[in-house]
Design goal:
Elements: H1 2-18, E1 26-27, H2 29-39, H3 41-61, E2 67-81, E3 92-106, H4 114-180, H5 186-221, E4 227-228, H6 242-252, H7 254-257
Parallel strand pairs: 1-4
Antiparallel strand pairs: 2-3
Helix pairs in contact: 1-2, 2-4, 3-4, 4-5
């Protein structure tokens, strides 16, 4: 399972490097996952959080480093005296400036293993944050894949609903034509019109759902859904049975590891 996950992420990253304005017009699911991996704001926020947590290790290790304290003190004084014996205008003054400067270096030799334990705790927090980031990545990529497939499904539903409306419109026209030549009843016409009106409402709902799915896709992937290519089945990548799936999740799922 680790090799499978690594190969999937490798494919996503390769697709990310291959993205360009000259790429094929039809988007693939790997391309959508690549965009989500690069552009999703929640994922970028989680990455920034991991970088912040990394700084905790350096802060904890500061307990092993020396502390340097500097001090400075300057005094300035001026004294005046009257030297009358030397004649008028012979007042004099003496200025005196004194200063003290010092540097003190303190190095802790033993702190009861406090720094060592703080560093171990900070490193554990980093590892937990990395696993939490992997969990966020999995959730974002899963949501991106779901949004991708939802857009394809809802667009197809809207197309089929529109075709159904066209069929019922033709049915209503045929019912009215039969009524005009005396081969149908007003009830037949009313039923055909009612079915057509219901189809109009269903088409509006289907188109609204397709727009909502496209908005969700844009929120997660960070790009408008253009022409989306159908994804290949992934059943061959699944565990062979439920027990195997539970065992893999228990030992590898990042939320549990965190």
């Amino acid at each position: 399972m680790p090799s499978l996950r690594k190969s999937l992420f490798a494919a996503v990253l390769v697709s990310a490097t291959a993205l360009s304005p000259l790429a094929a017009s039809a988007e693939t699911i790997l391309g959508a996952l690549s965009k989500a991996y690069q552009n999703n704001s929640q994922l970028n926020s989680a990455r920034a959080g991991v970088r912040v947590t990394d700084e905790g290790v350096a802060i904890a290790k500061s307990g092993w480093r020396p502390t340097i304290t500097g001090s400075a003190d300057i005094d300035f004084s001026r004294s005046h005296f009257d030297a009358r014996s030397n004649g008028p205008g012979s007042n004099r003054s003496i200025s005196l400036t004194t200063g003290n400067f010092g540097v003190q270096i303190d190095q802790t030799l033993f702190d009861g293993f406090q720094t060592r334990n703080n560093v171990a705790a900070a490193e554990s927090q980093v590892r937990a944050s990395v696993e939490s980031l992997r969990n966020t990545e999995e959730n974002i990529l899963f949501n991106a894949a779901s949004a991708y497939m939802d857009v394809i499904r809802d667009r197809q539903v809207a197309v089929l609903t529109e075709q159904n409306l066209q069929f019922l419109t033709e049915q209503a026209r045929a019912a009215r034509s039969r009524f005009d030549v005396g081969e149908g009843t007003r009830t037949d016409v009313a039923q055909a019109d009612a079915e057509r009106s219901s189809a109009v409402a269903e088409l509006a709902a289907a188109r609204a759902q397709a727009l909502a799915s496209a908005a969700t896709y844009r929120q997660i992937v960070g790009d408008e859904p253009g022409r989306l290519r159908a994804a290949s089945p992934l059943s061959k990548l699944l565990p062979s049975n439920l027990d195997a799936a539970i065992a893999i999740a228990s030992s590898e799922h990042p939320a549990i590891l965190a």
